[in-house]
């Protein structure tokens, strides 16, 4: 979930993946550190019910207050900005050799931006150029 949903994240995982299949295309999304930190820190919870709010995507009606009970929302320790920043730095260090590996094989394609809907058309175009169109039986 979130920024660290990518795979493989470490060199060890990349080696395991190599044994299973041969990759011919790897996509790397370069999203600014601050953007990731803000997004990942946007999660707040209502402890009693486990209801989760995201300040960007589904904020509570009143900031910091649970919609149903009116009780205060809290941020989990690992969602606090400092903890998220530390997690991102650790992730970046582990992912760097993986990026270098695929770059050296000539199969890495990098895309930069802050919004999925702006990056996606470029990713889609790349994938469309690599994957032959599916032809239905009727068209054959």
Question: Distance between termini?
Answer: 41 Å
CATH architecture of the domain at 11-105: 3-Layer(aba) Sandwich
| Average of the residue pLDDT scores | 90
Question: What top-tier CATH class of the domain at 11-105 fits best?
Answer: Alpha Beta
User: Strand share of the residues?
Assistant: 5-15%
Number of helices: 4
Helix content: 40-55%
Q: Got a strand count?
A: 4
CATH domain fold name of the domain at 11-105? Rossmann fold
* Poorly predicted parts: none
Please describe the biggest sheet, giving its number of strands, its sense, and whether it closes into a barrel. 2 strands, parallel
Describe this structure in words.
Helix content is 41%, strand content 13%. The protein has a domain at 11-105: P-loop containing nucleotide triphosphate hydrolases (Rossmann fold, 3-Layer(aba) Sandwich). It starts with 10 loop residues before the first helix and ends in a 10-residue tail after the last helix. The strands form two sheets. It has a two-stranded parallel sheet. A two-stranded antiparallel ribbon has the order 2-3. The protein contains four helices and four strands. With 140 residues, the chain is an alpha+beta fold. It has helices at 11-20, 33-40, 81-104, 116-130, and strands at 26-30, 43-46, 51-54, 108-112. The mean pLDDT is 90. Helix 2 crosses helix 3 (81-104).
What are the SSEs and their pairings?
Blueprint: H1 11-20, E1 26-30, H2 33-40, E2 43-46, E3 51-54, H3 81-104, E4 108-112, H4 116-130
